[in-house]
Design brief:
This protein is of the alpha+beta class. It folds into two domains: about 40 residues, Orthogonal Bundle (Arc Repressor Mutant, subunit A), CATH 1.10.10.10; about 80 residues, Alpha-Beta Plaits, CATH 3.30.70.920. The chain has a four-stranded antiparallel sheet. The longest helix has 13 residues.
């Protein structure tokens, strides 16, 4: 990946709906080579898709909680079972396996604390292999980026 590829990625993160003509102008290429680079970045999996940024508050999902999850069992099959179950729960925005005193860290979005409390008991606690959870309620989202910085 060269500097032009990185420029393309930065521009697409800023505006995924940019026309190929405008993108090629911004990165200093003619249209055909620019299109070829974008297709290559897509085919290689660097670009995984395109989408719209949604306002969680307007969609009644403005409440954020981080949940530490400890599993009863951490065999490969138990981890796979938990991983697959988490992927089916839309309120779980992110799930990361952690090396430390607990096994997973979840980012959960719900309407409010009352909805989260119900969700904790009816969904998170019922996920396969869950032994213990600890919840941390977000008071203010200072930075919640949907993109990340691409090094030069």
């Amino acid at each position: 990946m060269d500097k032009i590829d990185k420029k393309i990625l930065k521009e697409l993160q800023t505006d995924g709906r940019i026309t190929m003509t405008e993108l090629s102008n911004r990165v200093g290429l003619s249209k055909t080579p620019c299109i070829e680079r974008v297709r290559r970045l897509e085919a290689s999996g660097v670009i995984q898709g395109y989408g719209a940024y949604l306002d969680p508050t307007r969609l009644e999902a403005g409440h954020i909680a981080f949940v530490q999850v400890t599993l009863k069992d951490t065999t490969t099959s138990a981890l796979q079972e938990f991983n697959q179950a988490v992927k089916r729960v839309p309120q779980i925005q992110a799930c990361h396996m952690i090396a430390g005193n607990f096994d997973y860290l979840l980012k959960v979005r719900t309407r409010d604390v009352a909805e989260y409390r119900q969700f904790l008991g009816t969904t998170i606690a019922q996920l396969p292999q869950v032994q213990h959870t600890s919840t941390f309620i977000v008071m203010e989202a200072v930075s919640d980026r949907l993109t990340f910085s691409i090094p030069d």
